[in-house]
# Entry
Amino acid sequence: MIEAYIGLGSNLEEPLQQLRQALLAIAELPSSHLVHVSSAYRSAAVGPGEQPDYLNAAVQLRTSLDPDALLQKLQRIELAQGRVRTVRWGPRTLDLDILLYGDLRLTTPTLTIPHPGLAQRNFALYPLLEICGPNLVLPDGADLGTLTARCPQGELVKTGLRLTGDMLVPGDMN
# Structure
């Protein structure tokens, strides 16, 4: 099983509920086990036009799905929750990104791992830091503690909102 880290984001149609529903769907992925879930973080939208703020989170997943199969499953979850791809970086009901997949470095026409721009995105780094701690080493040898120190938290706010229902709670899922 590979340790994969998934970033979650939503700024449309009740973002907290969108993240909760996505979390439940991720927990049901075949050949996978949800290990950790971060808190929800509020961040300003990055993209064109005026958009509502995002809620973001990260999850740790143990999976035997290969990266392409995992991407396909995540995109199906996005579609099931009303994701429409019209404007790049536009508002969306749900965005699920593979941030890391073990120590894999991969660039294909449909997938780049680690996620491009990860080191500059506080809304991905800080939820990841919450579930992994600063000693997580990325495939390029950088550690998460150093990356977060170089990427200010800025206006990113840990909301204290719980992503989960009664069965799943943030933190250790074992």
In short: The longest helix spans residues 67-80.
